Amino acid sequence: MSRNILLLPGDGIGPEIVAEAERVLARVNDRFSLGLNFDQALVGGAALDACDTPLPEDTLAKARQADAILLGAVGGPKWDALPMAKRPEKGLLGLRSSLELFANLRPAILYPQLASASSLKPDVVSGLDILIVRELTGGIYFGQPRGVRHLENGERQGYNTYAYTESEIRRIGRVAFEAARQRNGKLCSVDKANVLEVTVLWREVMEDLTREYPDVALSHMYVDNAAMQLVRAPKQFDVIVTGNMFGDILSDEAAMLTGSIGMLPSASLNSQKQGMYEPCHGSAPDIAGQGIANPLATILSAAMMLRYSLGEEEAANAIEAAVSQVLDQGLRTADILSEGTRKVSTREMGEAVLAAL
Questions:
Q1: 12, 36, 207, 269: most buried, per Cβ within 10 A?
Q2: Do residues 97 and 142 touch, judged by C-beta distance below 8 A?
Q3: What is the C-alpha separation between 184 and 108, in angstroms, rounded?
Q4: Is-contact 163 198, C-beta < 8 A?
Q5: 10 Å Cβ neighbour count for 220?
Q6: Is residue 117 very low, low, confident or very high in pLDDT (cuts 50, 70, 90)?
Q7: Could you say which of 192, 213, 277, 335 is catalytic?
């Protein structure tokens, strides 16, 4: 069976890290006879430079036909002065919306080899394994109306709409409950129901879903408290489910508990399990082209792709085991370097993972 993988290197360090992940995918493709076919397209700033749009029609057409998508990163200061509709990030948001990639899965896992790289004490974070399920196509990032308007007194006012329908909440809730059921049976729903009516509804729908998942223990937490608890006692969490904006913030906070955001993959899925996979970090234009970026989050995103969209658990496990083996060998890119380890380049880290495979 043939499966089509679309590679979207994007901007900044994106081309460097996607290149290493592609080599890893090619290796497991041969080893496990996966039938993967690879194609590439432009998105973000690279697409703006070439096509004057952050999401060309050709890219969107290829994305719709792909079984899964591997994205590097988009954006950079080069395009910051452009109108909002032309920003590189609009290409990413357009893909999420057009493909209905509503469920964002962001694991925050601390590899034992990197315990000393976390900014928290090892006893606080050792054994950390959290999954954040973020709603990705609704909420304040997509709500209408939005914009900047002039008031009667001549002052400008910016405004955005935070809105969720019951069906949108129920859809992401089921993804989170299913994930919790397959893990440790604990789900924490994060909201701001003390001041936001939209999250009052969010909480009501989550409570209603417990009738379908009696084996999952549901709890609720306000987002400000959740932010504090992630730093104070992060291992109390198993699966967290929340809306688009809160999930955006909390998942980046959780990333730093693991020592480096350069280690964390993510998956964005639609109801058909078609997915776009990307590292949680950004385009890091300040180090682009220097060969020092950490490719492991992108390589681990490729493993998530094999697991969630293609059902290739054995191949996914092999990649994750290879990454762990490389860390055991003491190889580190600059972002996770510590005393007693050896600094390697982006390419050398990719080579080491290939060797471990």
A1: 12
A2: yes
A3: 15
A4: yes
A5: 17
A6: confident
A7: 192
Which token pair is 272?
């058909």
Q: Are 223 and 250 in contact (CB under 8 A)?
A: yes
Model confidence, pTM: 0.87
Q: Is 248 one of the annotated active-site residues of the chain?
A: yes
* Cα gap 290→119, rounded to integer Å: 26
C-alpha of 259 from chain center = 16
Count the Cβ atoms, other than its own, within 10 Å of residue 256: 16
162 sits in the region (left: phi over 0; alpha: psi -120 to 50; else beta) called beta
Distance CA(236)–CA(190), nearest Å, equals: 14
CB burial of residue 53 (10 Å; 0-12, 13-18, 19+)? middle
Fill in the amino acid letter for 147: G
63 near 268, Cβ under 8 Å? no
* C-beta separation of 140 from 133 below 8 A: no
Confirm whether 224 is a catalytic residue: yes
Share of the chain above pLDDT 90, in %: 85
Q: How far apart are CA 305 and CA 68, in angstroms?
A: 7
Catalytic residue among 111, 141, 162, 308: 141
**pLDDT score for 72:** 97
Is 52 a catalytic site residue?
no
Any idea which residue has 């591997």 for tokens?
70
pLDDT at position 185 is 97
